[in-house]
Design brief:
This protein is an alpha/beta fold and 198 residues long. The chain has 2 domains: 55 residues, no CATH class; 118 residues, 3-Layer(aba) Sandwich (Rossmann fold), CATH 3.40.50.2300. Helices cover 33% and strands 20% of the residues. The chain has 6 helices and 8 strands, in the order H-E-E-E-E-H-E-H-E-H-E-H-E-H. It has a 5-stranded parallel β-sheet, with helices on both faces. Strands 1-2-3 form a 3-stranded antiparallel β-sheet, with helices on one face. Helix 5 links the parallel strand 7 and strand 8.
Length: 198
C-alpha cells in the first residue's frame, strides 16, 4: 500500500493518482483520464513519475502513453551529513533516473527542468552544494550560462555539466567539468564527489 500523504507536482488529479498507485501495489489497474507528466516525492519513499493514459491490466498500457513508477527510497541517515545536489535536466525520465541514483548514494537531491527553475531554487535554498546540469535546455539560458551565473552569484556552489553534443562539450569544458552523454550514473557520482572533495 502506498502511504499518504501523496502530493504530486503538476498533477491534475492527485486523489485519482493516489488511488491508482494503491491499485498498482495491490494488483489492479483502473482506467485514468489522459493527463500530463507528473512527478512527486514521498518523504522517505523516493520519487515517482506518471503520465496518465488509458491503462490496461493485460498489456500494461494502450497507445503512446507511458507509465513510470519508481520508488527509490533514500538510505536512512542523518540529513545534516548529506550534500545537496540540484539536478537540472529538461528530459524528465533522464532527470528522474539520475536523481534516484544519487538519492540511493546518500545525497539530498532537488530537481529543476530548466535554468530559470534552477536559479529560483538556488536563490531559495542556501544548502545546495553542487549543480549537475545539462547544457542544452529550453528557455533563455543554457547550462553554460547557468554555470556562469552560479560562479558570479553563488560561488560556493560547484558545477558539473553534461552534454551529448561534441560542440557543446568542447565549449563547456573550457570553464567546467563535463560528463559526456550518455553517461553512467557512477561516473556522475565520481565527478560529484571529486568536486565536493569527498
Amino acid at each position: 500500500m502506498v502511504p499518504a500523504p501523496l502530493v504530486p507536482r503538476h498533477c491534475e488529479a492527485p486523489k485519482m493518482l493516489a488511488r491508482w498507485l494503491r491499485k498498482v501495489k495491490t494488483g489492479g489497474l483502473p482506467r485514468m483520464p489522459i493527463g500530463r507528466l507528473s512527478s512527486a516525492h514521498l518523504e522517505g519513499k523516493g520519487t515517482f513519475c506518471v503520465q496518465c493514459g488509458l491503462l490496461s491490466r493485460a498489456r500494461g498500457l494502450l497507445g503512446s502513453f507511458r507509465m513510470i513508477a519508481s520508488f527509490d527510497a533514500p538510505p536512512q541517515s542523518d540529513p545534516a551529513s548529506r550534500h545537496t545536489i540540484l539536478v537540472v535536466e529538461d528530459e524528465v525520465l533522464v532527470r528522474l533516473d539520475i536523481a534516484g541514483y544519487l538519492r540511493s548514494k546518500d545525497f539530498t537531491v532537488l530537481e529543476a527542468g530548466n535554468a530559470h527553475e534552477a536559479m529560483q531554487l538556488l536563490n531559495a535554498d542556501p544548502n545546495i552544494d553542487l549543480v549537475f546540469s545539462d547544457v542544452s535546455m529550453p528557455g533563455n539560458l543554457n547550462g553554460i550560462e547557468l554555470a556562469r551565473w552560479i560562479r558570479a552569484e553563488r560561488n560556493r556552489v560547484r558545477v558539473l555539466l553534461t552534454s551529448g553534443t561534441a560542440n557543446n562539450i568542447q565549449i563547456a569544458s573550457r570553464e567546467n567539468v563535463v560528463v559526456e552523454k550518455p553517461y553512467h550514473p557512477g561516473d556522475v557520482e565520481m565527478n560529484i564527489r571529486r568536486l565536493l572533495g569527498k
